[in-house]
Amino acid sequence: MPINITMPALSPTMEEGNLSKWLVKEGDKVSPGDVIAEIETDKATMEVEAVDEGTVAKIVVPAGTEGVKVNALIAILAGEGEDAATATKGNGESKAAAEPEKAAAKAAVEPEKAAAKPEAGPAGNGNARQAEALAERPAEPRDGGARVFASPLARRIAKEAGVDVSAIKGSGPHGRVVKADVDSAIAGGVQAAPGAAAPAGAPAQAPAAKPMSDDAVLKLFEPGSYELVPHDNMRKTIARRLVEAKTTIPHFYLTLDCEIDALLALRKQLNDAAPAIKGDKGDVPAYKLSVNDMIIKAMAMALMAVPEANASWTESAMIKHKHADVGVAVSIPGGLITPIVRKADQKTLSVISNEMKDLASRARDRKLKPEEYQGGTTAVSNLGMFGIKDFSAVINPPHATILAVGAGEPRAVVKDGEIKILNIMTVTLSTDHRAVDGALGAELLGAFKRYIENPMAMLV
What we know:
Dihydrolipoamide Transferase; CATH 2.40.50.100; six-stranded mixed beta sheet; four-stranded antiparallel beta sheet; 22 strands; alpha+beta
């Protein structure tokens, strides 16, 4: 019997991916565990392994295809003793998998007929039910008389937000407006629905400004004076998450200056004392600590010292974490990623240092696993190596805090009534006010400062 290979969900939040490369071709035999393809998600390139044994009868989605939806059919295997041509020609499962798409198309064109006679599909197929739901709801006219097709959930959310669903461009099958489209429209600002009334007791508000269209932006520049570079999945994801973070998280910021002379001295002492180990090019130090490694450790220990700040906000409850999992922003071509040092509060500086080198290296090659960059309890973003004195970072959900670290530099400061030249590093803590109040955030940043200025405490 033919076996369908579908687009896998490589992380809980994955909705689509790019099928970057096939490692097999039609006619090849595969066994369970064989790597058959490479899938590019928003942050990494992952290998896909075969689950079943058989012969590749047909590659449905060619290499290089972008935006392949999770669970979409990408290839067909012929089972043992089955002819490949027969498998592709008579594959009932693949036909059934295609039926929901036909149902959605038919519902979009002939909703009344689709409602009367929904297309057949596999038992329990969600796409078929969605097609029926689409048929049952009358389409709203767009400007000019064209009808708008939207899921019931999308319509409800748009109605509650007072958003005109006809002003939203749909990304679902055949241009259908889905929940993600409405959420993006609300975050980006879209015109209110005609006649939409404000909730009782709410002050009247001016309609949200509508973002400029791509065409309108391009008209501002002289033709031939620019080059268009399409967004890849990473840049789209970064943009979406930044909009979400800045529009849904109430940020506030706390800034402190930290003296790092003692930290720099301890770092040198520890690096000088590093034992030698055999490497590919002879003896090398077992570790080489960076200032950032010590910042990660200090932030982790500060969260343990102020456990109320080691939290994440959800609408129903506060998540209080038992360990400090510190994400570290790493710049990679086309964007950035935040690999996580798990249980950094329990790890030595040398372990943190070597782990970060490995994570950063694989991040730049886009070889991280989803569990290595998703989650975490806080994050550190260090731009000191670029000479940046201070800045404010955007919180990365589900974190409630992120520490922005500036350059350590000699500054003239007054200490003990005298002007002295000390190495000073400015840090800014961005905080989610829903989870961490001002005084608690100040306590957390104060604990971080104590560890940075008394670094021997991180060794005991």
